[in-house]
Amino acid sequence: MSDDPTEIDLDDLQRRMDGAMTALRHEFASLRTGRASATILEPVHVDAYGQMTPINQVGTVNVPEPRMVTINVWDKQMVGKVEKAIRESGLGINPVVDGTIIRLPIPELNEERRRELTKVAAQYAEQARVAVRNVRRDGMDHLKKAKAAGMSEDDHKIWHDEIQELTDKAIAAVDKALEEKQEEIMQV
């Protein structure tokens, strides 16, 4: 926020609300929906040359089909280590080695697991809504200080409406993203 107590920085509020949305999208990407995505390998690290390294730094990760992820490992000696890291990662995926290419067939999710994932997605969305409301509260607190510092009643109302409009748009975007993610998860 700026030094002038009667100025409200809507760009800062917008940036912070967008940050909550970005974090939500990142969390949604980590949910395994039965569809292949290179992001499911982000938490997996390989012991490469004495150092724990992300898989995307020892090979090329591709998604050639909706239910298949492939890793083209650059160093032949690393293939076994990459395969072992995936097996031990707890992702529930069985890697298939074909030379320097490792194929990861993504199994379909059962109905119970799909319902669990929709609940997890809803929790992520609620966290994003709370983050957006916290940004709104910060903006409203600053607005109260600005009013105490001499902001006119009309300006106060205009800024209040602007902040509320930003909040409403951000909450609507969270709700839309949740709806799309739940639809994707429940898709058979």
UniProtKB/TrEMBL annotation:
What are the entry keywords?
Cytoplasm, Protein biosynthesis
What is this protein's record name? Answer: Ribosome-recycling factor
Q: What does this protein do?
A: Responsible for the release of ribosomes from messenger RNA at the termination of protein biosynthesis. May increase the efficiency of translation by recycling ribosomes from one round of translation to another.
Domain of life according to the entry: Bacteria
Domain named Ribosome recycling factor is located at: 24-186
Q: Which gene encodes it?
A: frr
Q: Which organism is it from?
A: Acidimangrovimonas pyrenivorans
Q: Where in the cell is the protein located?
A: Cytoplasm
For the keyword Protein biosynthesis, the answer is yes
Q: Spell out the family assignment given in the record's similarity comment.
A: Belongs to the RRF family.
Chief site of localization: cytoplasm
InterPro entries according to UniProt: Ribosome_recyc_fac, Ribosome_recyc_fac_dom, RRF_sf
